[in-house]
Amino acid sequence: MQFLTFPLRSLTLFYALLLWPGRYAFWGVVDTAAYYPALMYDSGVWSIRLLIAALAVTPVLLAINRIGRGQTLGRWLLPRRRHLGIASALYAGVHLFHYLRAVGGLGAVVFDLRLLAYQTGWASLIILGALAATSNARAVRAMGRGWKRLHLWVYPAGALALWHWYLLDWYTGRVLFWCAIFAVPIIAKWGLRRLRGRLFA
After folding, report:
1. Position 169 in a domain
2. How far is CA 66 from CA 58, 71, 177, 185, 190, in A?
């Protein structure tokens, strides 16, 4: 039985599944001839998708509590919310790596920072970095109630990342689609919080 449940319990396999779709972006770290636009797209879009997935865990848990079924799924999802966020930050870090290697110097970075498209990207990245750095049990204990307040910044981080994408992508319809997807867990969480009965905080 343990052999059958191992794929569900293994964090190594979980991360492998999260990072596999954007493997080209990671391969591009060592392959300097990789196609730059594809590297930026894969790393950026998967960072946003996984961030949305992390946000979706809370309304799913609230729905489980409300209907009184699926607690096994809820117990499996709860610790993985953190790992979804960390994987999102990893993709964002790879996104930054490819950008810095392409522009080639601090002067070009400063030049780009004049533009709102890059300001929003940097702001989102800084927030995601802070959230990933505090996504561990030690930080939770040390920060107490402040930990939850800090991690509410995941919502501005997602909004800024989408704004960054919107300003740089020629296909605005694609970005607006993901903006709508981003809004779903936020609206669902707000609605479910108004209902009584919760097992997960």
Report:
1. yes
2. 12, 11, 28, 16, 14
